[in-house]
Amino acid sequence: MIVLVSASSCNEAELFSKSFDDFPDNRWEKTNTLETNFSVNQDNTVANLELQLSYVYGSQFSEIPIEIYFTAPNHQIEKIPITIKTRDVSGNELGNCAGDYCDLTYEVKKEYVFTSRGKYKIQILNKFNYSYLPNILAIQIRLKNE
Questions:
Q1: Which Pfam family is one of those matched by this entry (predicted)?
Q2: What is the pTM of this model?
Q3: Helical (H) or strand (E) element with 13
């Protein structure tokens, strides 16, 4: 019963969530920019930005470079470069793995302030050095209140 209450309170704090799972042959092509729009209803809304990556266990790459772009209602653009590490220095998976699949949540930005209400756009770019990033199953972006 306690777990159900905890899960329920976490869901209530979620302001926005969008999943991308159209990766033919589990490849995130470099030319495939993930994009979504969402609305903020109050000025100075504060949220944590998370990215969840679902990938195939044992992927050959331990770091995934990504750039995230926020476009505000006033058309101001903020660039957030990140590198998601899938393994620690000993080679152990950092994701929550079950069988051949792993999920890894990365906190992109804590207490991000959306200064004005209106429509925002998020773009997620694959900055991998090759034409595609292999073994990607899904990517989810979430905005949560604390």
A1: GldH_lipo
A2: 0.85
A3: none
